[in-house]
Amino acid sequence: MNAFTYSYPTKVYFGEKAAEKHLPAELAKVGPNVLLAYGGGSIKRNGIYDELLCILKDAGKTVTEFTGIMPNPTYCIVTCADDDRASQERTLECFRGYADCVEGAKEMGVVYGTGVYKPGEIKNTPAFTEAYQLGRSVR
């Protein structure tokens, strides 16, 4: 492998039209080639993709796209302070409604652990073992 240096400094501008206002000056500090790395369709649906390509073109940059980057995995634990299975299902359905709005979200499993009320009590239950095994199988 050839020797090289990798530097990835980050500067984030917030606010309306932030890319349009600040990106041209930042682009003037770098070479002619830009790697535009992104995940799925949201960057195109929300208009950021077209805005960035326009700014990059106006700056005379050659753009290479790297697409399909998966977001960092996030694990959610949904709790319900009720031993009634119907209440637990309603709580889970509410969370599923939220997850439907998150791009790429998928449910990997559900474990019901009931009858525990104090910190640490769950550790010696079948639900704890089931959750541990489920977590190990997530890829």
What does this structure look like?
With 139 residues, the chain is mainly alpha-helical. The protein has 2 domains: 18-66, no CATH class; 85-137, no CATH class. Helix content is 37%, strand content 7%. It contains 5 helices and 2 strands; from the N terminus they run H-E-H-H-E-H-H. The chain has a two-stranded parallel ribbon. Helix 1 (18-27) runs parallel beside helix 3. The longest helix is centred in the middle third of the chain and has 15 residues, at 85-99. It is elongated. The chain starts with 17 loop residues before the first helix and ends with a helix. The mean pLDDT is 86.
**How many domains make up the coordinates?**
2
Helix-strand category:
mainly alpha
Low-confidence stretches: none
The backbone outline, from C-alpha atoms, is elongated
Number of strands: 2
One letter per element, helices H and strands E, the order comes to HEHHEHH
Measured by DSSP, the beta-strand proportion falls in 5-15%
Please, what is the oligomeric state? single chain
Strand arrangement, major sheet: 1-2
Q: Describe the biggest sheet?
A: 2 strands, parallel
Provide a quick synopsis of the model.
The mean pLDDT is 86. The relative contact order is 0.10. The chain is built from five helices and two strands.
Key features of this structure:
about 140 residues, mainly alpha, 2 domains, 5 helices, 2 strands, about 35% helix, elongated
Task: Show the helix and strand layout.
Layout: H1 18-27, E1 33-37, H2 42-45, H3 48-58, E2 62-66, H4 85-99, H5 126-137
Parallel strand pairs: 1-2
Helix pairs in contact: 1-3
